[in-house]
Task: inverse folding
């Protein structure tokens, strides 16, 4: 390894994150909506039974659901980001519980590019790096444009092969 | 069987004689495990059934229901027959082949499973002899790949000679590979031309009977009471004695009551003391027995392959850990034994020990005995003048506030509902917890030295964890909501086969550590390490 790599590690600025694809917000919103819908329906049913004053249950539930669908995904999206360094991938995520993981390419065992049905619709993919460590055995990076995810995979793989040889 | 034993590893690759005899469904070159292994499986099952059978038999004879015997005996025989038949089918359908580049095992009676493990992925091969297979002279081979636990490849059972031949074969293949890989493994340069490298083994640590006995005293355990409880439940199911039935115990005590009352207070005190002595004695005896069973004949040697550990009285295990696979070392101790300077050394390794999460290489030793072992593994015991860092004082304040706060909250309902003096209990606990945590803070520290990262924690039983930075896999800085506001963080280091976590350090320090680790990692690729 040359000395460049070492200096890149040291000089990663804390604010130089690459943000995820804008479609990732839509994906998070749909996922939040899918979780919220049953609660909203339940509250509507309770509303219909006339057991409580009108709006006492549905009001708050609808408000929380609205927040969870509109506001939270946007904040989650902004909290996430990554840095594709010369010899490492840094993944940052979390609003309340923040985590900042770094996986050096030299420690990657194998790589996955996964696409769920929703991700396929929006042209997104999740990149997963596997390491031999017990902690962070797999590091996921969702919300990448699928072409980019594949390109990143190829780049990391090429890096592994080159270092092994 | 006899020709299998005499085969050299070379002919094990493409062996014909055994396969030809069993013929039919086996692909060329495939071999079966030792024919006795199905008998071993059958007998093991028999041993498992022995206790219920015996209890069942006692019940029948007790109740004089001999007529039922006619029904039960054929049933038992049928169950045993089916067991043996299935064990035999399993044996028949399990074949393995040690090929040119991998070991393949095909198994399954109805559904078939084929697994191939390339030699370069096999971290190590261990031989294990449980009691019953040992009587038959058979061994179980475990191929450790780093996949961990149930994903590992096993071969049960082979004759001892065959097992060792296969182990030598795998090792020879691996070393050949490593040498061809040009130089990452200088320590393993001496390949065993003579076939067995054990002659030049250097003894690093062994426990004689005296050491084992001392160790046993510190392994005080009341597990025997749990076993007795289990046995009582067994008796309950099979013999109709209700261990938890109060009437039974009332009857027992009614018989003794007069006698106990007749003894007077002095004797009652003596009785309590006697009970405690019995408890202490039972606990020590249990610990002693367990220690003797586990660590009998403990020997740690340095061979050309790495560390070799042998131990066990009934189940004798023989594990080899290559030097370069040791990822980190843990030195731990107990509250009492620590006072006497007794410590335990364990390696965190890519290949996992059977059942346990790390390899204990010296379970009960003094510092000066541990140091050479640590150095041979390529680690350095923490030096004198290290730049130790403690956790953030903000973290100390917050964690003390959270822990003591919980007790203070608990004090509120106690103050309301319980008699007045009881409120002191949670208050004292809150203060005590705060004081203990405050004091323990001084013992929680970490440091970086030339190539390692060292973490020490624990007030009464301090434990030291040492990892080589270059062997770490990833770095994560994690922060909860409070930690973010107060600018401290938890550092998780990815360690193969274990965890390395430093909690509550200042954010700047966490970033410093991260950069140091990443700089070390960038120096070498994973393949150059394993």
Result:
């Amino acid at each position: 390894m040359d000395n460049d790599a070492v200096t890149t590690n040291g000089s990663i600025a804390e604010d130089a994150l690459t943000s995820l694809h804008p479609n990732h917000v839509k994906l998070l919103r749909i996922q939040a909506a899918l979780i919220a819908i049953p609660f909203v329906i339940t509250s509507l049913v309770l509303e219909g039974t006339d057991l409580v004053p009108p709006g006492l249950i549905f009001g708050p539930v609808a408000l929380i659901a609205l927040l969870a669908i509109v506001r939270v995904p946007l904040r989650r999206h902004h909290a996430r980001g990554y840095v594709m360094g010369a010899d490492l991938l840094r993944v940052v995520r979390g609003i309340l519980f923040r985590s900042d993981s770094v996986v050096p390419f030299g420690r990657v065992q194998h790589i996955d590019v996964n696409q769920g049905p929703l991700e396929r619709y929006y042209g997104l993919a999740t990149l997963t790096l596997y390491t031999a460590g017990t902690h962070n055995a797999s590091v996921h990076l969702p919300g990448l444009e699928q072409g980019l995810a594949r390109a990143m995979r190829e780049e990391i793989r090429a890096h592994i092969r080159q270092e092994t040889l | 069987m006899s020709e299998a034993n005499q085969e050299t590893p070379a002919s094990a690759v493409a062996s014909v004689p055994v396969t030809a005899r069993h013929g039919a469904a086996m692909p060329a070159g495939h071999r079966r495990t030792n024919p006795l292994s199905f008998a071993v499986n059958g007998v093991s099952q028999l041993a498992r059934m022995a206790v219920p059978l015996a209890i069942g038999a006692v019940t029948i004879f007790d109740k004089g229901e001999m007529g039922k015997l006619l029904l039960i005996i054929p049933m038992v025989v049928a169950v045993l027959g089916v067991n043996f038949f299935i064990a035999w089918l399993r044996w028949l359908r399990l074949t393995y082949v040690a090929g040119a580049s991998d070991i393949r095992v095909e198994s399954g009676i109805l559904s078939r499973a084929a697994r191939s493990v390339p030699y370069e992925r096999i971290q190590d091969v261990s031989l294990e002899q449980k009691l019953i297979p040992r009587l038959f002279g058979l061994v179980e081979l475990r191929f450790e790949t780093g996949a961990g636990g149930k994903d590992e490849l096993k071969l049960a059972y082979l004759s001892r000679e065959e097992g060792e031949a296969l182990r030598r074969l795998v090792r020879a293949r691996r070393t050949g590979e490593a040498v061809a890989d040009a130089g990452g493994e200088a320590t393993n340069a001496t390949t065993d031309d003579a076939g067995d490298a054990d002659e030049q083994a250097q003894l690093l640590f062994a426990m004689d009977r005296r050491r084992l006995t001392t160790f046993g005293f510190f392994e005080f355990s009341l597990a025997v009471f749990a076993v007795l409880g289990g046995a009582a439940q067994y008796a309950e199911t099979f013999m109709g004695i209700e261990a938890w039935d109060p009437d039974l115990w009332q009857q027992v005590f009614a018989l003794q009551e007069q006698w106990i009352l007749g003894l007077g207070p002095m004797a009652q005190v003596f009785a309590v003391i006697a009970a405690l002595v019995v408890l202490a004695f039972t606990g020590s005896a249990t610990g002693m027995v367990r220690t003797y069973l586990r660590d009998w004949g403990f020997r740690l040697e340095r061979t050309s392959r790495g560390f070799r550990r042998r131990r066990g009285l009934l189940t004798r295990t023989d594990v080899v850990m290559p030097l370069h696979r040791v990822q980190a070392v843990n030195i731990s101790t107990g509250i009492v034994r620590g006072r006497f300077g007794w410590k335990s050394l364990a390696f965190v390794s890519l290949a996992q020990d059977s059942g346990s999460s790390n390899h204990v290489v010296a379970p009960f030793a003094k510092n000066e005995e541990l140091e050479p072992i640590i150095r041979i593994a390529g680690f350095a015991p923490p030096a004198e003048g290290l730049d130790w860092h403690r956790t953030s004082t903000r973290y100390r304040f917050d964690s003390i506030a959270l822990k003591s706060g919980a007790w203070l909250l608990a004090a509120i309902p106690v103050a309301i509902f319980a008699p007045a003096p009881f409120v002191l209990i949670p208050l004292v606990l809150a203060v005590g917890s705060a004081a203990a945590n405050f004091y323990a803070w001084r013992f929680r520290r970490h440091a970086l030295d030339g190539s390692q990262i060292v973490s020490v924690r624990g007030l009464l039983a301090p434990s030291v964890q040492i990892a080589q930075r270059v062997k770490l896999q990833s770095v994560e800085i994690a922060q909860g909501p409070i930690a973010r506001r107060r600018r401290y963080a938890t550092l998780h280091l990815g360690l193969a086969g274990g965890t390395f976590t430093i909690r509550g350090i200042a954010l700047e320090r966490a970033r410093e550590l991260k950069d140091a680790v990443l700089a070390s990692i960038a120096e070498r690729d994973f393949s150059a390490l394993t």
